[in-house]
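Entry type: protein chain
Record version: 2
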Amino acid sequence: MRWLSRSIWKHDRVGWVSYAGLPGNRYHALAQQYCPKGAGGVFTFGVKGGYEAGISLVRNLKLFSHLANIGDTRSLVIHPASTTHRQLTDAQKTAAGAGPDVVRLSIGIEDVADLIADLDEALAA
């Protein structure tokens, strides 16, 4: 999983990445303690451009399914500000960790290179 979060981090359209498997993450030590085989397949990142950029990213992904659940064999994507948290005010969304730039990914069993290429293309669109 670190391969994807590191790849995304380097993209010029991504402002930040939150993944407990990355050194420097505030939960990294806990993830190593409680998840010695890896921090899991879910991570969050901020797309530059905010709300509209988040919606655009989701619309342009081809391999990721747009679903709110996690833990599937398919790779999933959600933009909480426009879906699961849309009923909240902007301040409430931000307080809940679902600000306008937030995108969450749950990584499935697809080929690594294909997932990275899909994200690169969608971010560039």
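Comment: The chain is about 35% helix and 15% strand.
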